[in-house]
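Can't paste images in this forum, so I'm doing it all in text. The chain is below; anyone willing to post the predicted structure tokens underneath?
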Amino acid sequence: MTNDDSAFAALGALGDPVRRRLYRYVAAQPDDVGRDAAAEAVEVSRSLAAFHLDKLVEAGLLTASSRRLSGRTGPGAGRPAKVYRRAEGEHSVSVPPRSYDSVGHLLAATVENAGLDRELQDAARAAGAAQPDIDADDLVDVLAERGYQPYWDEGTLRLRNCPFHALAEEFPALICGMNLALLEGVTPAAWRPVMDPCPGGCCVALSRSSD
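Text version of the structure:
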């Protein structure tokens, strides 16, 4: 099976609307998700949720493990429950085939080698600021639409997903600096983006401005 075939098979698993909602819910959570919580979130029965969650594991979109959700150990703690989280791999398909990733890597390498980090950040900040004004109450929805998968960690808005993950792994200083600048341009004045990576997620977090 080619890489394209694998990607088509994985993405084809999301054709079912229930399965798609389950994937989106689990992928956006910072912690493992049990079957009961997933079923409640998408408003289906536990047995139906379990069926579709396991199909998503088979497709390589989720990973599964077992642990006691009560947090207790020893006698009386109950049996371990099956829990799910987003798989680490990426799947992308272009029809007809395109190679934007290759161009992105080439451009990033050229910018980094030329020492144009500041120019890239200025361009990213300007691009973010050029978007329509965002109300502070709409920030979570806007970040979700951009693929960041935001979630609350007490008073901090963390980002479960990095939309630039592949490039950020190869050019971390360049891409993370660009990402911070982009979010500085996008976010309203009431919020302050800072470098504060979360495990497996984005390098930037947002907190309320103290001004």
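The two ends are 55 Å apart (CA to CA). Residues 138 and 188 are 10 Å apart (CA to CA).
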